[in-house]
Amino acid sequence: MAIVPDDTTCALCSEPIWIRLGPESGPGSDDDEDMLPQQGASASRRVVPDEDDEQVVPDDVVLHDCPASHHFHWQCFLSHSEPETYCPACHVAIIPPDDDDARLLATIRNEGGQEDNFDLRPVLVEERLFATAPHLRTHAALCSACFTGDEASVLDILSNPSLSPPETTHLLNTPDSDKHWTPLFYAAVAGHADIVAFLLNQGADPNHRDRFEHVPAEYASEEGHAEVLDLLRGARSVY
């Protein structure tokens, strides 16, 4: 759905909610697919909208339970002390503070398009977790790259000179909090044989069991990824 440019501004910084995409982002990039709130652009890239410029897109969050329907840049909204509880602009309570199951619904507009009933609360919880434990963001990025088959990102993350060999091994074999999957699970279930081979060579454990007591080879078998299955079976025999 096309989004027609307007003169909307952010309620916190008063700058236009429209930004000019940099060369690393834009429609069709991997970040667009999940329609998650994007990180936003720097102030120097915010522009007055031009309907004829395809590289000008919104960076817009509108809270459903804010009576004033304030608009925010994603980073401006995120930088507020309690964006999951109060509207950052008018400080009106937007969900009950003692209700852990309440949804924080918003309309999100960004380079991926528009989503009208996006629950922001899980994203905010994750962002706060990443802020207190930055290594978890790296782990999440690695799992995502393994699942999508982004070999360049996998290599970039694991070849970071700031990681010692023990830290690399720990990153490879740390399970996520959902299914207790390590990055190897994500590569195996998606059938990315080259990534599976690389992870194994870097020290990924093929015998790790998830919360369902399955190993990566079982998912590769279920999905019919014969080459991946051979790699995992061979690796399991030497561990």
Automatic annotation (TrEMBL):
Residues 21-52 are annotated as: Disordered. Gene3D superfamilies: Ankyrin repeat-containing domain. InterPro entries: Ank_Repeat/CDKN_Inhibitor, Ankyrin_rpt, Ankyrin_rpt-contain_sf. The keyword tRNA processing does not apply. PROSITE patterns: ANK_REP_REGION, ANK_REPEAT. ANK repeats lie at residues 179-211. It comes from the Eukaryota. Keywords: ANK repeat, Repeat. It holds the Pfam family Ank_2. This is Ankyrin.
